[in-house]
Design goal:
This protein has about 325 residues and is α/β, with parallel strands linked by helices. The chain folds into two domains: about 240 residues, Glycoside hydrolase/deacetylase (TIM Barrel, Alpha-Beta Barrel); about 60 residues. Helix content is about 40%, strand content about 15%. The protein has twelve helices and twelve strands. The strands form four sheets. Strands 1, 4, 5, 6, 9 and 12 form a six-stranded parallel β-sheet that branches. A two-stranded parallel ribbon has the order 2-3. Strand 10, helix 10 and strand 11 form a beta-alpha-beta unit. Helix 5 runs antiparallel to helix 6 and helix 5 packs parallel to helix 7. It is globular, with a radius of gyration of 19 Å. It binds zinc ion. Zinc ion binds next to strand 5.
Length: about 325
């Protein structure tokens, strides 16, 4: 299905990792971020046939006054830097000749840190405790669905804290569950980070652009200015040193309202980033700032991608705004 009305210039899609097949990975609680490789392949074939898949850097350049994008422009992006981007997505992108951008959490690739959500997910899925009690939060962990419910509730709780408070709470959760995952520990396949060799090979293909996503994946809007600056500068330097080319694009962790501000944007610009992406769902319009470009997050079905890329989702959003209604899922983190 190809839409006849397309009200805007570019649609940027966000993926995370991929799963090898449809079956669920036993010790994972958040499978939705990792779509089956067959679904991703179907999505890519659809995009290759009906859309102009462009580099995200072309989108940022057009927004900054550079060459205009073709009509029906769509960019594919991935966040975090999973091994499955290389093992499962890259072969599909190569076969179809589609460009994509991968935003790297550089400490994750270095194997020096694990992002907080990986630590939380593994602590809750691997613990032998049947009850978690931390602060005023109590949850039964007897079944997989109770563990998933606790995971989602604690994600919300951690995201609402300053980064220092969230770090303390996560450590308290790991203590209570008696699981202290280390960067070198075995992880379920979808949660493994890529190696720098994989990143270099993808970069050398010319199809894949590598961008920044901080060094340890905190929410920048909840960090002190010193920590934010350290995260942005370290991330930039690690990619430059490992790849040989400094990154020009960035994606904000979480990327919702309040997850970055004007100071964060100024830090990005002074570090050398010329384009940055949020998780504000929507098309990119001329009024969007080049350091706060919207993206659609986590499509899990081909029809969802078509609704995003065709403009159907955008039309619905504008229609709801016209009625004064909020779009329930404005931000997909
Ligand atoms: Zn991320």
């Amino acid at each position: 299905m190809v839409s006849r009305w397309r009200p805007a210039e570019a649609c940027v899609l966000t993926f995370h990792g991929l799963r090898a097949d449809e079956s669920l990975v036993p010790d994972m609680l958040d499978q939705e971020q990792h779509i089956p490789a067959s679904v991703f392949e179907e999505v890519c074939e659809h995009l290759a046939k009906h859309y102009q898949v462009v580099h995200a850097r072309e989108v940022a350049a057009a927004q900054a006054g550079g060459p205009k994008l073709p009509s029906r422009a769509v960019a594919i992006t991935f966040d975090d830097g999973y091994e499955s981007n290389y093992a499962l997505a890259f072969p599909v992108l190569k076969r179809l000749g589609l460009p994509a951008t991968i935003f790297l959490t550089t400490g994750y690739l270095d194997r020096s840190v694990l992002p907080w959500f990986v630590r939380l997910e593994m602590a809750l899925s691997r613990t032998s405790q049947s009850i978690l009690q931390v602060e005023d939060f109590t949850a039964s962990l007897s079944t997989a669905s109770e563990r998933r419910e606790a995971y989602l509730a604690l994600c919300g709780r951690l995201k609402s804290r300053t980064q220092a408070e969230a770090d303390d709470l996560l450590a308290a959760i790991e203590d209570a569950l008696q699981v202290h995952l280390q960067p070198g520990d075995n992880l379920p396949a979808p949660l493994r980070p890529m190696t720098w060799d994989m990143a270099r090979e993808m970069h050398a293909s010319g199809l894949i652009t590598l961008g920044g996503h901080t060094h340890t994946h905190p929410i920048l809007g909840r960090c002190t200015p010193e920590r934010s600056e350290h995260e942005i500068r370290t991330c930039h330097a690690r990619i430059r040193d490992e790849i040989g080319t400094p990154p020009s694009l960035f994606a904000y962790p979480n990327g919702g309202p309040g997850d970055f501000d004007q100071d964060t944007q100024a830090m990005l610009a002074s570090t050398g980033f010329s384009g940055s992406f949020t998780m504000h769902a929507g098309f990119i319009h001329p009024h969007h700032e080049v350091l706060a470009l919207p993206r659609y997050g986590n499509p899990s079905e081909p029809w969802e991608v078509e609704a995003m890329a065709s403009g159907l989702m955008e039309r619905l959003r504008q229609f709801r705004r016209g009625l004064g209604l909020r779009w329930k899922k404005e931000v997909a983190a």
